[in-house]
């Protein structure tokens, strides 16, 4: 079985490191691509910019998307993903510090598949990542292409 | 004198023959004695001719001669009586002379007679032509008829009157000129007239005489008829005059008379000294006296004793030829009642134009006077009403004046051309006028650069009748000052509901407007502050937590990856670092909650508090199955409020109760409601740690805690948040408790 690709959009290196640690602790060995801002994420998804030579057929199994991002923020990334035919059906999980109602509402309003708040307690974070991985990478069947 | 008796026409002659001879006859007689009788015979001859002309017969002539003989015989006897021979000779001589002279006279008489006949015939012709002239030129119709009443003469006037030509009626019966209904009667009248010896009479006496014209029209006639008998045959001559006009005049007189008779008004004639001479039925009716009772009496009988004494004055004026018209006074009736009359008096003149009396016409105006009096009473009543109304009006005028003088709002009345009629003192002052009266006739154009705006509004109100209510206006006064105002303008109507202009009130709302603007600015500021706060909260939410995650995460990483290199104390410190980080995360969340509650707007609805309580209790029991907590939740407790915020309230209260009963072996938590005086108080009661009431005021302050974190964990923000929510609902929250005796939190909404 082909190794499934995950796209993590995260500007905070600490969070990036901790997320990777949590994935590892849960033995989620999928190939992980990290984009450090919204623009980079979109370049990756649409094979543009630095990712122009990428195989466009290789789409991530799930996108873990932070909301507060440099350049293009998470909600805008989500909007563009949903607006484009190629990425319209990609599962997008919002993974963020905020539990502001407006963030949650706008995320779902723009077509997020899930909204997970990063807990401060690392044990809880690990547990959250475990469940996410289990669900989106194992249980969930993506839309046929 | 037999002769005179037999021939009355001889009277003129006889004095010369029968009475004594005149003085000169004596000389004539002596001349005859002396044979000088030729002059006498000539005189006789002349007389004889005169007699013949007078129509004396020849026989009469002999009688005259006989009379002469008798006349002369005494003289002869006196002269010759002494000698019979001489007397005899004288007598025979006289006889002979007579014979001789008679012969001469006879011849002369015959001659005379022929002459006479000629003259007679000539005269007859003359008189006939005169008669014909008279008949033909007469103004009156002349009709002559025979005994059988056949028409003989029909003159031109008759032709004109009857509209028939003479040749068509002459020889025909008279009846054709008489209306058929009267013919028999008329015939008989004429016959009976013929039987009398009366020569002439007026036919009017026999009754009305009417003629019949050829066109069938009847007309009244005055007729006089005469009869004449010629050669034993009677003729009747009628002279007729058309009396239509006269009859009309008579009719008019009769008509006037009947007016006087039938007039409702009293018509009284009186002499200049006031004696009543005529008294018509109207007077009888009005005054109650019969004409026969008062004619000849003084007019003063109808003058009331108490006056007015005006009769003398009236008569004086009449004497001066004046007329009195429409003079109203009071008169006395027979039964003593007073009668209001309107009087017209005119002088009465005789044929020569002298004023001989007065005709007074009295009209009974008692009823009219009564009506007038009633009218006057009504008028007086009306006057009273008008006075009352005027008083009311002046009162309302005064009120209006007060209003206009003291109203801080500008009040104004304008005409159809939007010119001011009246204005309040406040408006006049704002327009720079000393006296509000100066406003009359001016318009907004005299004061405002923006006058056109109000002009158009007012004209539209006048056109449509629809008021303009509460229009907000910015006004620049003549002195340069500016105001905001609310203007209401309505149509001004007269009593008949016609629009005669506009009435307006301008309320200066500058201060309110300024306050509104300040408020608006404050709101904008607040909004900005809120936005900043929101942005701040957002940052806190995202950015303050991220480092905590790093602290906690990497502490855990250290513990996991390098546990063997750390002494137990070091690992303990790392645990405390993690606990602090996690506590801080809780604090941040609670603060964010508090901030959210603060700025959240209420979304009211119906809330089932019992259901919320049951749900929370269930979750707590599930989370901590090891605990033994008895929940006592009243069913069906509903309230109205913001469901999301009330959820937070219930969560906090029940979590607290759960937390502070953690040391109770048998915990008891109750939710219920108290109904007192129509207001409801909800409460959550527990049998937990409780609190000291002297710190009760600190309970609801942020970060205020009554227990140490080691005793009971917490941030001290929960109750502060609840209080905000309750206050937002306009409610109240308070607590009762005692240390180790549990606590009860009450709230009302």
Report on the architecture of this protein.
The complex is a heterodimer of chains A (145) and B (749). With 145 residues, chain A is α/β, with parallel strands linked by helices. Chain A contains five helices and five strands. Chain A is globular and about 35 Å long. The two termini of chain A are 17 Å apart. Chain B is an alpha+beta fold and 749 residues long. Chain B is 49% helix and 22% strand. In chain B, strands 1, 2, 3, 4, 5 and 6 form a six-stranded antiparallel β-sheet that branches. Chain B has a five-stranded antiparallel β-sheet with strand order 8-7-11-10-9, with helices on both faces. The N terminus of chain B is likely disordered. Classes of the chains: A alpha/beta (145), B alpha+beta (749). At the A-B interface, helix 1 and helix 5 of A face helix 17 and helix 18 of B.
Q: Terminal Cα separation of chain B, in Å? A: 172 Å
Mean pLDDT of chain B equals: 81
Strand content of chain A: 15-25%
Shape of chain A: globular
- The rounded Rg of chain B comes to 76 Å
Low-confidence stretches of chain A: none
Number of separate helices of chain A: 5
Oligomer: heterodimer
Uncertain runs of chain B are: 1-23
Strand content of chain B: 15-25%
Rg from Cα of chain A? 14 Å
Q: Treating each run of at least 4 consecutive H or I residues as one helix, how many helices of chain B?
A: 21
Helix share of residues of chain B?
40-55%
* Spatial strand sequence of the major β-sheet of chain A: 2-1-3-4-5
Number of beta-strand segments of chain A: 5
- How many strands, which pairing sense, and closed or not: the largest β-sheet of chain A? 5 strands, parallel
Distance between the termini of chain A: 17 Å
Estimate percent helicity of chain A: 40-55%
Care to give the gist of this entry?
Chain A has 145 residues and is an alpha/beta fold.
């Amino acid at each position: 079985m082909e190794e499934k690709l995950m796209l993590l959009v995260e500007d905070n290196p600490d969070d990036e490191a901790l997320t990777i640690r949590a994935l590892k602790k849960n033995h989620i060995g999928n190939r992980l691509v990290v984009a450090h801002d919204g623009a980079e994420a979109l370049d990756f998804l649409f094979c543009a910019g630095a990712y122009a030579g990428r195989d466009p057929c290789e789409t991530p199994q799930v996108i873990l998307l932070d909301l507060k991002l440099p350049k293009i923020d998470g909600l805008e990334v989500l909007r563009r993903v949903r607006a484009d035919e190629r990425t319209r059906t990609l599962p997008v999980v919002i993974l963020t510090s905020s539990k502001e109602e407006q963030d949650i509402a706008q995320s779902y309003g723009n077509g997020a598949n899930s909204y997970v708040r990063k807990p401060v307690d690392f044990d809880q974070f690990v547990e959250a990542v475990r469940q996410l991985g289990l669900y989106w990478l194992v249980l969930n069947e993506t839309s046929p292409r | 004198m037999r002769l005179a008796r037999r021939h009355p026409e001889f009277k003129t002659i006889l004095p010369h023959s029968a009475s004594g001879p005149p003085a000169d006859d004596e000389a004539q007689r002596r001349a005859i004695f002396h044979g000088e009788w030729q002059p006498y015979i000539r005189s006789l001859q002349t007389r004889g001719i005169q007699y013949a002309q007078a129509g004396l017969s020849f026989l009469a002539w002999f009688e005259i001669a006989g009379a002469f003989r008798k006349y002369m015989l005494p003289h002869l006897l006196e002269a010759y009586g002494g000698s019979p021979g001489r007397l005899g000779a004288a007598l025979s001589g006289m006889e002979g002379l007579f014979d001789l002279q008679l012969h001469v006279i006879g011849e002369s008489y015959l001659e005379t007679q022929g002459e006479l006949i000629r003259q007679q015939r000539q005269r007859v012709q003359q008189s006939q032509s005169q008669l014909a002239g008279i008949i033909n030129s007469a103004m009156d119709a002349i009709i002559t008829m025979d005994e059988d009443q056949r028409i003989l003469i029909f003159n031109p006037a008759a032709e004109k009157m009857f509209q028939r030509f003479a040749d068509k009626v002459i020889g025909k019966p008279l009846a054709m000129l008489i209306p058929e209904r009267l013919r028999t009667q008329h015939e008989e009248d004429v016959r009976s007239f013929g039987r009398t010896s009366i020569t002439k009479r007026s036919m009017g006496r026999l009754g009305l005489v009417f003629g019949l014209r050829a066109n069938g029209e009847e007309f009244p006639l005055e007729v006089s008829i005469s009869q004449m008998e010629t050669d034993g045959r009677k003729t009747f001559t009628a002279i007729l005059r058309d009396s239509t006009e006269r009859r009309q005049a008579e009719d008019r007189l009769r008509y006037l008379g009947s007016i006087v008779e039938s007039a409702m008004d009293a018509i009284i004639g009186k002499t200049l000294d006031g004696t009543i001479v005529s008294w018509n039925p109207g007077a009888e009716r009005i005054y109650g006296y019969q004409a026969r009772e008062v004619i000849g009496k003084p007019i003063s009988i109808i003058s009331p004793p108490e006056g007015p004494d005006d009769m003398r004055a009236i008569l004086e004026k009449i004497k001066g030829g004046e007329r009195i018209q429409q003079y109203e006074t009071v008169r006395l009736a027979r039964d003593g009642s007073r009668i209001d009359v309107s009087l017209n008096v005119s002088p009465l003149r005789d044929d020569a134009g002298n004023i001989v009396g007065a005709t007074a016409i009295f009209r009974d105006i008692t009823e009219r006077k009564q009506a007038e009096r009633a009218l006057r009473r009504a008028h007086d009543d009306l006057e009273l009403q008008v006075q009352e109304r005027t008083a009311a009006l002046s009162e309302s005028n005064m009120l209006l004046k007060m209003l206009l003088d003291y109203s801080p709002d500008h009040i104004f009345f304008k005409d159809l051309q939007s010119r001011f009629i009246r204005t309040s003192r406040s408006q006049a002052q704002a327009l720079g006028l000393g006296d509000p009266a100066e406003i009359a006739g001016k318009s907004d154009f005299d004061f405002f650069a923006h006058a056109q705006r109000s002009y158009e509004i007012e004209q539209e109100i006048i056109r449509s009748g629809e008021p303009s209510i509460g229009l907000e206006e910015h006004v620049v006064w003549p002195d340069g000052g500016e105001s905001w105002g609310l203007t209401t303008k309505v149509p001004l109507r007269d009593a008949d509901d016609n629009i005669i202009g506009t009435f307006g009130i301008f309320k200066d709302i500058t201060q309110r407007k300024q306050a509104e603007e300040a408020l608006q600015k404050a709101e904008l500021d607040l909004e900005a502050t809120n936005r900043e706060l929101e942005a701040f909260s957002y940052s806190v939410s995202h950015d303050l937590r991220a480092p905590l995650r790093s602290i906690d995460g990497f502490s855990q990483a250290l513990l996991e990856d390098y546990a063997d290199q750390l002494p137990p104390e070091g690992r303990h410190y790392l645990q405390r670092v993690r606990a602090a980080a996690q506590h801080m995360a809780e604090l941040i969340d609670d603060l964010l909650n508090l901030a959210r509650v603060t700025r959240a707007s209420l979304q009211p609805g119906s809330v089932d508090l019992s259901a919320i309580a049951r749900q929370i209790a269930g979750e707590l029991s599930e989370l901590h199955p090891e605990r033994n907590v008895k929940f006592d939740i009243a069913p069906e407790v509903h309230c109205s409020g913001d469901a999301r915020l009330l959820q937070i309230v219930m969560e906090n209260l029940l979590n607290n109760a759960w937390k502070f009963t953690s040391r109770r072996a048998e915990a008891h938590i109750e939710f219920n409601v108290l109904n007192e005086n129509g207001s409801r108080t909800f409460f959550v009661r527990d049998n937990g740690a409780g609190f000291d009431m002297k710190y009760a005021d600190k309970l609801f302050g942020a970060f205020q805690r009554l227990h140490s974190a080691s005793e009971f964990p917490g941030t001290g923000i929960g109750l502060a948040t609840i209080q905000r929510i309750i206050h937002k609902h306009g409610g109240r929250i308070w607590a009762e408790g005692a240390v180790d005796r549990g606590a009860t939190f009450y709230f009302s909404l």
